[in-house]
Amino acid sequence: MIPAQVVTAGQQALDKLIGPVDGVRVALLSTPDGFEIASLRTNSELQLNRLSAMAGSLMAMARAVGREINHAGCKRLTFETDSGVVVFQSVSSEFPCILCMVLDTNAILGRVLWAAAEVGAEMNKP
Asked: Model-level pTM greater than 0.85?
């Protein structure tokens, strides 16, 4: 069960901090076990339930690889495709979650990563 205040805070953070960023097709906050908390969609028909389900598994895999190479504490997984970039980032808060963003080719990655960090800070506010 996802507390209502977490859903509200997550949606507000996505709308305020990710919404104005160019090139973000989807921003999704999900639980580590794969359930959607909040989402923001711009010009995309991606199935968010599938993306949410994959987010936890991909972050767990990234952490396992990090441990194997003695780089513990994986915070972010980023991969590039011909169509853009996908970012999965852990959000440590009272209610831990994963932020997933699907970007198109005109997104400025540095700007997106800054906004992602701001979402994490926003989710940590009391």
From this structure: yes
